[in-house]
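Predict the holo structure. Ligand: FE2/S2 (inorganic) cluster.
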Amino acid sequence: MTFVYDGRDSCVLYSPATGKWISFARSCPHAGIDLLSGDVEDLEDSGCGVIISCPAHAYLFDAHSGSCLWDTTRGQPPATPALLTYDVEDRHGG
Ligand code: FES
């Protein structure tokens, strides 16, 4: 589901593994590409969280914290700023 929050195009996803919602701004912190067509891997069952892959340069972001997990600095701590994430409140108990 997509929405605009605080003037930013954003989206929300449901993780069946945790039963939790995840929400983040759609603009990639690297170069602003829309993440909506990127890949999302739900690896919660293996303890690796939910990973978002940008469709432009394949940088990887933790969907919960927004931290960049991999970028082209390979082997160095990622220099890319974190993805903007939002807390989600499920008011319907789903
Ligand atoms: S714009 Fe997303 S990784 Fe470059």
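The chain has one domain: 2-86. The pocket of FE2/S2 (inorganic) cluster is lined by residues 28, 30-31, 33, 54, 56-57, 59 (CB under 6 Å).
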